[in-house]
Amino acid sequence: MKFAAPDSQAISLYILTSDEVDGWKDSLSDAARNWVEANGFTGGLGQHCILPSEGGEIAGVAIGVGSEPSLKRGRFPVAKAAANLPEGTYRLAMVPRLLNVENEALGWLLAQYRFDRYAKKTAMPARLIAPEDVDAARVEAIAAGEALTRDLINTPASDMGPTALQSAAETLAAEFGATVKVTTGKALLSENFPMIHTVGRAAADAPRLIEMKWGDAGPRLTLVGKGVCFDTGGLNLKPGASMGLMKKDMGGAATVLGLACMIMALDLPLQLRVLVPAVENAVAGNAFRPQDILTSRKGLTVEINNTDAEGRLVLADALALADEEPTDLIVSMATLTGAARVAVGPDLAPFYTDSDDTAQALSQSGAAVADPVWRMPFHAPYEAMIEPGIADLDNAPKGGFAGSITAALFLRRFVERAPYLHFDIYGWQPSAAPARPKGGVGQGARALLDALPKLLDL
Predict the structure, then answer these.
(1) What InterPro entries does the record point to (predicted)?
(2) 150 in active site
(3) Percent of the chain's residues with pLDDT above 70
(4) Do residue 143 and residue 130 come from a single domain?
(5) Catalytic residue among 226, 247, 273, 312, which?
(6) Averaged pLDDT, 362-377
């Protein structure tokens, strides 16, 4: 997922809205104009028209991105056509003002992604030279981080359990000179991570807390990612249809590791800490039970009313640890609730923050980098819904209302000192779209990366 080397013989790409096609055709020779019209090219979204030279070779390609209203209905329109271009090296010769060139260049790289660990996949034949005035190294770093996230989510739990997720973090750390500390199995109890241990103790692959640190100067950023490598639902066993995609329940961990990859590759001037509670929520004789009461690292007690609401339990211990050190911003990312999908669907990444400035910065960045996010409320009147009476907190309030909000409120109880930002992501592309094949996908990471200079005053 890199740009092609400069090539004087590269094929020119003319990116056109439907309103620009007629004016562009007027600049062509009569033969070329007749060819374009004979091929029915109108600049519609996803259309492309190959322009032949007199010798029958490809002289250029016109790519349609539709009208301004149609551009608002999707992302990465150039990538939509790029996937269908013949083999060759291409350069952007004309781009509408409506398009962000850096986003389109990134979309082209993301369209090259193939998950080929288990079966060979044909590479996208069209290669792009980095456009002028685009920071190629930055775009490639972002694409690499996104590819890491996708690979981790796409890998099945048989090959991406807690041990393998630890190995992935260690490999990433070694690449950039970060340090990793791992607390595993019964050591979680002696180190006071009781809920991480409880959720993961029934699995053959021991639960663990993975901690990665990088950087020794600048603002302190802590990323916490839900690493439930597979979620059966525990004793409140999921039905088969709901269990089918649960290899992606570590999508939060995959996303923070992908974001960490971007941050380190770009050498941002900050101190980064990544915490991943990695577990498998399995069924065995020692699995935790409904109506058990757990004591968290923070000392808050939690009544278990559904063992399938386990992600917030492991995140709670990790968030409590994150809040024990001076930190400028704590961010959690998790495939936490189905309620978030009901609220905003699979394409939007809902987030929670108490800061209007943070929300505005994230929303602006999400729109700017084609990584859509949507603010949800920390609605204080719902606090009573997570207070069962028999314990301090309820992990699965009855009634089914406001499930994403109550989960976010639960997590906020474990962060008192630092500013806190929470993403309830999906981490999965249910059907193929431009630059986003069906499967694992990062959400919110690029928006957060773009917003960090404002959030941390970098």
Answers:
(1) Leucine_aapep/pepB, Macro_dom-like, Peptidase_M17_C, Peptidase_M17_N_1
(2) no
(3) 100
(4) no
(5) 312
(6) 98
